[in-house]
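Revision sheet: structure tokens.
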Amino acid sequence: PTVYGVRPEHFQLSGEGWPARVNVIEPTGSATQVLAELAGTPIVCAFRERVSARPGETIRLTADPALVHLFDAGTGGRLSH
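Predicted:
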């Protein structure tokens, strides 16, 4: 199996992306942190814009493929460069 790695600031809000259930939204002044669940996995997202969703709602996310890292689930070794 492969693990898909995305840094919090590399997630983007998108109308047609992966569905993620919002758990916590935390405005921090210059950014908004969102703690969510994507495909059963807890994730953290960081957005420069305000996020209008509330806990329990679903947002849709994407990430630029050039900024995604792939890892071997068994060894933890990086598969992409």
